[in-house]
């Protein structure tokens, strides 16, 4: 039997996408066709942010990766689908930028979904990824250049390495994306840099005990698995429980839609304050104010995104996750899409290399499978964010803190609910 030479593959970035890819390759590559190296700029692995939503098909994927048991005691199941309909409890939407909030939608969504702390997911993936321990920390990649049948990468300290394939899991400001677009898709050179979405996000965590002491009858206390969206003109807040229900994850958005695509005039990340949040949401209903009064040093982060790409893989360079399709967080699917990219690419690589396909062929298959879905979700998430903040033709003249009645919100409710209709589908390659 003809021996198959091992493919040397580098993953740049050890976030959720990179670790999922490493874990999937580790579990699928039983014949060891792949020599894998993972390069991470940070001196230690720490996930930025707190909670994330995991939809049913992503939860199933975590089961196939062997991570469900590690997460079962930490994840919070927010909804369980009715077997008869396939739909479960979704989200509660209120128009809250008025003294008396109005609930205008109690949605249903396809399938089950959970909330997980990012750090818990990262640790679960680390425990399942044992690819010869080839995780290199303090290794910042500064350049990625394909030359013939190899790809050269250069590091900040001047060191170099070459591989048969380099995969960019290096996020929003991807160095690998810059190399791919510059060499292979020069017409999309304007898509190398991320763009401002027009929104900033304030994140903080509230211990349920602290909220209970301030407002014992708050809906986040009395309905412990509820996901709430508090909506207003150019602003909205999302809350849901994490860490076995002991913590309320709070994500607060403030937008200037007319600024989308322009440079952001300030720091991308900084510490904010409770007073700043209370000022921004002055005039909102008490249910919101009670949460904001529990904020302790909220982080303030600019939401940057990427323009859609025509290819996620070309030649011997591929992209996954935010490096391929950095999106707004309004659908709660960014991490899930990165994981689907990763499992798809791992499955195609292991099977393709085993069957003698060359890497450019494999990347063509990856691109056909994942690029349409990734770009669709990127665009749909953007549209959903406009709906949450009443930025539609119907509400074009609505002023901040202007009260409206429930009947006027009925069309908005239908549009928002329709934004999740596709969630029961997935388009990843599954060889497990």
From TrEMBL:
Position of the signal peptide: none
GO biological process, one term: secondary metabolite biosynthetic process
Entries under InterPro entries matching the protein: FAD-bd (IPR002938), FAD/NAD-bd_sf (IPR036188), FAD_monoxygenase (IPR051104)
Residue ranges occupied by any FAD-binding domain in the UniProt entry: 8-379
Lineage top rank: taxon: Eukaryota
Keywords on record: FAD, Flavoprotein, Oxidoreductase
GO molecular function: FAD binding; oxidoreductase activity
Keyword Oxidoreductase (UniProt): yes
Name of the protein described by the UniProt record: FAD-binding domain-containing protein
Organism: Agaricus bisporus var. burnettii (strain JB137-S8 / ATCC MYA-4627 / FGSC 10392) (White button mushroom)
């Amino acid at each position: 039997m003809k021996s198959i030479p091992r493919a040397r593959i580098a993953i740049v970035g050890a976030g959720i996408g990179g670790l999922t890819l490493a874990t999937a390759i580790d579990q699928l590559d039983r014949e060891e066709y792949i020599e894998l190296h993972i390069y991470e700029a940070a001196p230690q692995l720490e996930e930025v942010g707190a909670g994330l939503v995991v939809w049913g098909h992503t939860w199933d994927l975590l089961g196939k990766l062997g991570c469900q048991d590690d997460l079962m005691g930490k994840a919070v199941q927010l909804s369980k689908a009715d077997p008869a309909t396939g739909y479960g409890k979704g989200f509660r939407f209120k128009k809250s930028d008025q003294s008396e909030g109005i609930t205008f939608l109690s949605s249903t969504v396809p399938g089950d979904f959970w909330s997980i702390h990012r750090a818990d997911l990262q640790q679960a993936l680390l425990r399942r990824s044992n690819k010869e321990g080839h995780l290199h920390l303090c290794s910042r990649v500064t350049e990625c250049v394909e030359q013939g049948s190899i790809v050269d990468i250069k590091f900040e300290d001047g060191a170099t390495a070459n591989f048969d394939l380099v995969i960019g899991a290096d996020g929003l400001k991807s160095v690998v994306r810059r190399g791919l677009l510059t060499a292979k898709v020069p017409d999309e050179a304007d898509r190398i840099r991320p763009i401002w979405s027009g929104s900033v996000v304030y994140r903080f965590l509230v211990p349920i005990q602290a909220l209970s002491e301030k407002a014992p009858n708050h809906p986040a206390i009395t309905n412990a698995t509820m996901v709430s969206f508090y909506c207003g003109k150019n602003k909205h807040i999302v809350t849901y429980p994490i860490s076995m229900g002991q913590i309320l994850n709070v994500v607060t958005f403030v937008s200037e839609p007319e600024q989308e695509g322009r440079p952001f005039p300030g720091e991308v990340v900084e510490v904010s304050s409770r007073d700043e949040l209370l000022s921004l949401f002055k005039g909102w209903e008490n249910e919101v104010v009670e949460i904001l009064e529990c904020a302790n040093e909220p982080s303030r982060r600019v939401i940057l995104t990427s323009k859609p790409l025509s290819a996620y893989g070309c030649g011997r360079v591929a992209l996954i996750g935010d490096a391929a399709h950095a999106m707004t967080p309004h659908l709660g699917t960014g991490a899930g899409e990165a994981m689907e990219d990763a499992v798809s690419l791992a499955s195609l690589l292991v099977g393709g290399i085993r069957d003698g396909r060359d890497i450019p062929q494999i990347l063509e298959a990856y691109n056909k499978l994942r690029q349409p879905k990734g770009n669709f979700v990127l665009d749909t998430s953007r549209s959903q964010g406009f709906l949450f903040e009443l930025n539609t033709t119907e509400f074009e003249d609505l002023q901040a803190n202007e009260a409206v009645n429930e009947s006027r919100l009925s069309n908005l409710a239908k549009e928002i609910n329709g934004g999740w209709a596709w969630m029961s589908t997935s388009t990843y390659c599954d060889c497990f």
